[in-house]
């Protein structure tokens, strides 16, 4: 675009301005320790919510506490009632981290990285939770064994089968995001392609509910799309720097997300307010902007890396098993102390899962998949 200047005389032929080059600011692979800390904080928010902040645990004669939590520990209940927002925080971080970790990778590398990241801890969680429900019945219904086995695929939602643990519903949203993003990865990630992907996915997510096409709604995932899109835009800010287009995508994501937050308050949670939920989500989003723009680069620490590694196992194992443990121990100690003890216990379990399940199993699976892909490429 040329600018008309009030200068005489005009040159006979004005040379066009060179295009603005989009260059990356940071190399892929530079770990953002602040994100690790936020991930663990989000997981703890969700766990606290499930233990002491849901509408279920605030009902009279509920199976977990036997009486409303707001009567037992009102302050804890009020704080925990907003912990469900940790799920939306996970989705934004997922969009950011997936884009960061997949930049410059092939579809094969993307597939392998997702399998070894998702499945080892998940397999353990399915078997662990089922074992707890068998050993301590009466709080949650254990699924038939055929459904437990199907849960090991992580594809049970696509088959209309219930989850072993209710928290697994988010994995179905994650898998659909990975499948969509794999298309972009296959073509080679660039700034332009990721921006185009955000725009096309956003349009699809906006149209899906009114189009009343089940397949479009399944693929577009309108309930979660804008959180993932926000994460993608934030990573582009981190890698290439901010611009008006990225701020526009992020602003649109916030506007769509605040409505989704309101719908979840009204239709699912029933324990918190729209204003409080939007305030918490906005603070988180601004924190992610600060991370994306490099204002938190000095925040570093090995303990933050460890914190990040605990997030996924904690999320997968805490809900059904944790509330079952609370049911058995609720009359043995102060309720607040019990919640703290159970949280610490699951943090320890999460470290053990990461150290003795995730790491060794991921290594075995990675080597096996790489060997298999070599055969796919070379076998005649």
Automatic annotation (TrEMBL):
One of its GO terms (biological process) is lipopolysaccharide biosynthetic process. Keywords: Acyltransferase, Membrane, Transferase, Transmembrane, Transmembrane helix. Residues 33-354 form the Acyltransferase domain. Pfam families: Acyl_transf_3. The keyword Membrane applies. InterPro entries: Acyl_transf_3_dom, Acyltransferase_3. The chain crosses the membrane at residues 72-100, 121-140, 167-187, 194-213, 273-293, 337-357. GO terms for molecular function: acyltransferase activity, transferring groups other than amino-acyl groups. GO terms for cellular component: membrane. This is Acyltransferase. It comes from Streptomyces aurantiogriseus. The lineage of its organism: Bacteria, Bacillati, Actinomycetota, Actinomycetes, Kitasatosporales.
């Amino acid at each position: 675009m040329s600018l008309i200047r009030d200068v005489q005389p005009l040159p006979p032929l004005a040379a066009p301005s060179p295009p603005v080059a989009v260059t990356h600011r940071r190399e892929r692979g530079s770990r953002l320790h602040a994100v690790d800390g936020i991930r663990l904080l989000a997981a703890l928010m969700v766990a606290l919510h499930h233990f002491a902040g849901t509408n279920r645990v605030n009902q009279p004669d509920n199976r977990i506490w036997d009486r409303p939590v707001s009567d037992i520990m009102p302050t804890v209940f009020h704080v925990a009632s907003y912990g469900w927002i940790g799920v939306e925080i996970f989705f934004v971080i997922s969009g950011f981290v997936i884009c960061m970790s997949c930049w410059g990778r092939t579809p094969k590398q993307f597939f392998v990285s997702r399998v070894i990241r998702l499945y080892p801890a998940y397999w353990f969680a399915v078997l662990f939770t089922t074992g707890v429900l068998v050993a301590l019945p009466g709080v949650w219904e254990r699924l038939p064994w055929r459904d437990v086995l199907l849960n090991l695929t992580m594809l049970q939602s696509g088959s209309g089968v219930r989850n072993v643990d209710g928290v697994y519903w988010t994995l179905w949203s994650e898998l659909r995001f990975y499948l969509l993003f794999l298309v972009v990865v296959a073509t080679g990630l660039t700034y332009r392609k990721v921006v185009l992907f955000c725009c096309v996915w956003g349009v699809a997510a906006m149209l899906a509910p009114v189009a009343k096409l089940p397949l479009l709604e399944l693929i577009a995932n309108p309930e979660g799309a804008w959180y993932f899109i926000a994460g993608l835009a934030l990573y582009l800010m981190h890698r290439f720097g901010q611009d008006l287009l990225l701020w526009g995508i992020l602003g649109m994501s916030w506007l769509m997300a605040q409505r989704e937050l309101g719908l979840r308050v009204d239709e699912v949670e029933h324990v918190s307010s729209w204003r409080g939920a939007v305030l918490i989500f906005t603070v988180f989003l601004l924190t992610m902007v600060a991370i994306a723009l490099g204002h938190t680069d000095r925040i570093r620490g090995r303990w933050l890396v460890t914190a990040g590694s605990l997030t996924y196992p904690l999320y997968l194992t805490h809900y059904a098993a944790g509330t079952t443990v609370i049911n058995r121990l609720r009359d043995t100690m102060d309720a607040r102390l019990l919640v703290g003890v159970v949280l610490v216990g699951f943090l320890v379990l999460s470290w053990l899962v990461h150290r003795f399940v995730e790491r060794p199993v991921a290594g075995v699976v990675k080597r096996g998949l790489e060997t298999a892909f070599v055969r796919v490429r070379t076998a005649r």
